[in-house]
Design goal:
Pfam family, one: Big_9
Radius of gyration: 37 Å
Organism: Adhaeribacter soli
Number of helices: 1
Largest sheet: 5 strands, mixed
Distance between the termini: 99 Å
Helix content: under 10%
Structural class: mainly beta
Shape: elongated
Keywords: Signal
Oligomer: single chain
Number of strands: 36
Protein name: Tandem-95 repeat protein
CATH topology of the largest domain: Immunoglobulin-like
CATH architecture of the largest domain: Sandwich
Number of domains: 5
Signal peptide: 1-21
CATH class of the largest domain: Mainly Beta
């Protein structure tokens, strides 16, 4: 009965060690008696793009056995807190740069805050020392010991390991091969812990070795069992895969990765799965569970939910006169999943044969036929936003101008220019054709300058119906009225016709 109670106590310790918590009590350092002083130091770590990292942020601090530790979330990744100051940081997909988060250690109202900076680099580059926690099991048979390869999951970079803190219930040392050898005190059953440090030219890192000491008469068989989980569309899920397993103190690892997503084991021994964007359906992975008496594998079956709303684009129709433009509210008859988390945007898939089209700032389609064109035309547009793209056409009918025998008319324009200073370079633009009248049965109008203004210069930007005149000056006084003249010409019924108009620039 005594041995059975010790075994239950030991497994209680290891399950507590693996329990995820955002508020953590540090068990290793003790404060000097009577001081009550918290000492925290900033930390810096390095990982690679799309690669998570597990670090101990309080290994270099003195915060006492009763201190609580809280963490903030970084801006460019996610943070999961474990025990004894261990955290798992996962950068956002494809993020490269420096991310930061804070942690605060408190004893009552006495608090201290530290900063953790994590450099996420694009390539392997320079080597950075890092150490990961280890877990092993030993059957205590009065004189037995265990040899643990503590460096197998570390980034050593040529660093040298050393014992930083001896266990509370035994002795530990490093052998010639840098394996940690642990020997418990006679008769001790339960959890024990050793702290070691890597020291080298590329930095230092510390980690904990947790050892579960069992009765030599007890044999634990590792058993992994399949799991099932459901994932929301474009979401993620955390699965406690060890809940239905007999882990015997062992650690899980991914043996076969999923085909349609990414997965990793966090510091709490849980599986974190994220499907690829816009995927829905079935996915699976295989994990391995290794313990002191063997290893086994199991599968996790994942069902990614379908989107709750399907985007649907429907055709539109519009009629316009030649040499004009039309704006079509293409979304008014479409299913854009309004009110959901999907952000749907329209885009041009195929330009018209006899004109130009674009999507304006209000997500409306603007169509302009080629000069003088009369007849049918069409545009293909698409809706994207939730992984269910949809296409539709807009059909145009371009009719002849209602006044084919019109007279060419050039109308005057005026605009105000407010100068920054008397020496600054200032410009203003005039859309000259907007108020002019030209003939459908003629060629497209051409524009030329008849005479320039006194202080500035003008230039023509030809762009069909949107042809503009640009006025610029560096010498015009304030206030003054600048004047210049332009001419538009058309060939109507084989004869060239021209008209002039003045433009006034009021400079303030």
């Amino acid at each position: 009965m005594k041995n059975l109670n010790a075994i239950k106590l030991a497994f209680g310790f290891i399950f507590s060690l693996l329990l995820l918590s955002s508020c953590d009590k540090y068990q290793d350092d003790q404060l000097p008696a009577g001081t009550g002083t918290l000492v925290v130091h900033d930390d810096a770590f390095t990982t690679f793009k799309n690669q998570g990292i597990q670090v101990n942020v309080i290994a270099n601090d003195s915060i006492g056995s009763q201190a609580t530790v809280n963490f903030t979330q970084p801006q460019h990744g996610t943070l999961q807190a474990g025990t004894n100051g261990m955290v798992h940081y996962q950068p956002n997909p494809n993020f490269v740069g420096t991310d930061k988060f804070n942690y605060t250690a408190c004893l009552g109202n006495n608090c201290a805050t530290g900063l953790v900076a994590i450099s996420v680099i694009d390539s392997t580059g320079a080597c950075t020392v890092s150490a990961m926690n280890d877990l092993d099991t030993l059957a205590n048979n009065y004189g037995s010991s265990v040899s643990i390869d503590i460096l197998q999951n570390d980034n050593v970079c040529g660093a040298t390991p050393g014992i930083l803190q001896q266990p509370s219930h035994g002795l530990a040392y490093l052998d010639a091969g840098n394996f940690l050898v642990y020997k418990p005190n006679p008769g001790y059953l339960g959890m024990d812990q050793v702290k070691y440090q890597l020291t080298g030219q590329n930095g230092t890192a510390t980690a904990l070795v947790n050892i579960l000491v069992l009765d030599s008469a007890y044999t634990c068989t590792v058993v992994a069992r399949d799991d099932n989980a459901t994932v929301t569309y474009n979401g993620s899920v955390t699965v406690n895969i060890l809940t239905n397993d007999n882990s015997c103190g062992g650690s899980p690892s991914i043996a076969v990765f999923p085909n349609n997503g990414q997965a990793y084991i966090n510091i709490n021994g849980q599986l974190v799965y994220t499907p690829i964007r816009n995927f829905s359906g079935r996915d699976e992975l295989t994990y391995s569970l290794s313990g002191p008496n063997g290893s086994t594998i199991a599968k996790v079956y994942l069902t990614v939910s379908a989107p709750t709303c399907l985007v649907k684009a429907n055709p539109d129709y519009a009629t316009l006169q030649a040499n004009t433009s039309v704006t079509v509210n293409i979304l008014q008859n479409d299913n854009t999943c309004l009110g959901t988390s999907y952000y749907v945007t329209p885009g041009i898939s195929q330009q018209p044969l006899y004109g130009q089209a674009y999507i304006n700032a209000n997500n409306q389609l603007v169509y302009t036929p080629n000069p003088g064109y009369v007849g049918p035309d069409e545009v293909l547009y698409n809706l994207t936003g939730n992984g269910n793209p949809s296409n539709a056409k807009v059909y145009f009918t371009v009719t002849p101008n209602q006044n084919p025998n019109c007279s060419l008319v050039a109308n005057p324009d005026s605009v105000t220019l407010r100068r920054v200073s008397s020496q600054s370079y200032d410009t203003v633009s005039v859309a000259i054709l907007q108020n002019d009248v030209y003939c459908q049965n003629g060629t497209f109008p051409t524009v030329q300058i008849v005479y320039q203004p006194n202080y500035g210069r003008v230039s023509i930007v030809n762009n069909g119906l949107a042809t503009r005149i640009i006025y610029s000056t560096t010498t015009a006084p304030r206030p003054v009225r600048e004047n210049f003249r332009y001419r538009i010409c058309q060939t109507i019924n084989g004869q060239q016709v021209c008209r002039d108009a003045d433009i006034d620039i009021y400079i303030r």
